[in-house]
Design brief:
Order of helices and strands: HHEEEEEHHE
Number of strands: 6
Largest sheet: 4 strands, antiparallel
Low-confidence stretches: 1-20
Oligomer: single chain
Number of helices: 4
Shape: elongated
């Protein structure tokens, strides 16, 4: 290292040290924003806030569960699954809110229980398939409806009479 660079480094290092605040020894008191600092009351407030956060976290952890479940039929007299089972994801949100999902084609069923959400998804599958099959005869479908119909064509077929 050149003498100039060495001197500059030494100067910069000295500048950093001289601008640092003197180190303070910890006092043991915890600073809680928004709370007047008076020893035990601040500690109590901090413990109360931590307990409230833990409680909220437990609610969140317990409120979102994900299940992977099979659907073996569409519960339809007109339509059936070509190759059951169809695997779907059911999310639990909150105490009594369930969402059955076919993420690939953005179809969902909502219910107060898992069976209700699955029934709603079955209904959504049949309704969307019938709707898109009919519309395809009349108009050119957009990208998402075309993808939905392609997927549904692969999994749904008419029940033979």
């Amino acid at each position: 290292m050149s003498a100039i660079a060495s001197n500059m480094f030494g100067f910069l290092h000295q500048e950093q040290i001289s601008h640092q605040r003197p180190r303070q020894e910890p006092t043991g008191a915890i600073q809680v924003p928004g709370v007047q600092q008076s020893g035990l009351s601040a500690d109590y407030e901090l413990m109360r806030r931590i307990a409230a956060i833990e409680s909220e976290l437990k609610k969140l952890v317990g409120s979102l569960n994900v299940f992977i479940l099979p659907i073996n039929s569409l519960n339809s007299k007109k339509w059936k699954l070509r190759k059951p089972p169809l695997t779907v994801i059911v999310e639990r949100r909150g105490e009594e809110e369930f969402i059955a999902c076919l993420y690939d084609i953005n179809l969902y069923g909502y219910g107060d229980s898992i069976p209700d959400a699955l029934d709603e998804l079955r209904y959504a599958i049949v309704s969307q398939y019938e709707f898109l099959s009919e519309k395809k005869k009349e108009i050119e479908l957009g990208e998402l409806p075309e993808r939905q119909l392609g997927f549904l064509d692969e999994i749904v077929e008419q029940v033979s009479a």
